[in-house]
Design goal:
253 residues; five-stranded mixed β-sheet; 2 domains; 7 helices; Nucleotidyltransferase, domain 5; 25% strand
């Protein structure tokens, strides 16, 4: 009698993501079946000055550390249009007009595709996290060194919204309401939450979203400030917290 074939576990659908921020560049392979990091991530400080050559070197180091030889997705803090940097937030302005895909691909020897950082985090949350299964207008905001935004209509991304550059209290919103502003201005959670609340109230007035997802490092501490936000709409913390950018980058790889 023939014994039944042995069933083997399917190998995880691994892809690689790198999330570039103003202060750090972090990376890990991602299991796209679950949306979870396949290993512990590695973070390297964003070089100063954060020029294309210096950042391309870090991208290569991250890929080499994990011995990754395939394609990779990379987030970028600025407007990315067909792989070209149209703006550069919290990194060197020499990036503007640069073919980011080409710079990272040539330096690393791997095929690299780039996406706006907040858009990547939003894609991850819509597929695996707080936005899963949600239609209508869903918006995500990442509070970190800067303030990123992502806009979705019935699950489809409207890219490069960059709403962190709206005006708030006479300045760019990210200068007032990014997580870095809380540290810089030595604000209590309550004082910082008041700024975030004013910002989100303007967002709600302009876009009438059905759901707002708040991400970035402060999403891990949502209990300290999110209960003080009253912008008149459903607001939830990112389920993937600060890993959303890596996961979203892997999705486009």
């Amino acid at each position: 009698m023939t014994s039944p074939p042995t069933r083997r576990k399917a190998k995880p659908a691994l892809k690689f993501g790198i999330d570039i921020g103003g202060s750090g560049m972090k990376a890990a392979p991602v299991d796209l079946a679950s949306g979870k990091l396949a290993t512990e991530r590695l973070k390297i400080a964003t070089p100063q000055p954060s020029t294309p050559a210096a950042m391309a070197d870090v991208v290569t180091r991250l890929l080499d550390h994990f011995e990754w030889t395939g394609a990779a997705g990379v987030t970028f803090p600025g407007v990315v249009h067909h792989g070209i940097a149209k703006s550069a937030a919290n990194i060197d302005k020499s990036w503007i007009g640069t073919d980011i895909d080409a710079v990272f691909t040539e330096a690393s020897g791997r095929e690299v595709k780039v996406i706006n950082d907040a858009d990547a985090a939003g894609l991850a949350e819509m597929r695996y996290g707080a936005g899963q299964g949600r239609d209508g207008v869903v918006m995500m905001f990442t509070f970190g060194t800067g303030l990123g935004s992502a806009l979705f209509l019935d699950g489809k991304l409207v890219p490069n919204t960059e709403l962190g550059h709206m005006e708030l209290d006479g300045k760019e919103a990210e200068k007032r309401a990014a997580a870095s502003a809380r540290d810089r201005d030595r604000l209590s959670w309550k004082e910082w939450a008041e700024r975030v609340d004013r910002y989100l109230e303007r967002i709600v007035f302009l876009f009438s979203p059905d759901l707002i997802i708040v991400g970035g490092g402060v999403s891990r501490k949502a209990g300290k400030w999110l209960p003080m936000i009253d912008a008149g709409v459903d607001i939830v913390p990112a389920a993937l917290t600060n890993d959303a950018g890596i996961v979203g980058a892997a999705l486009i790889a």
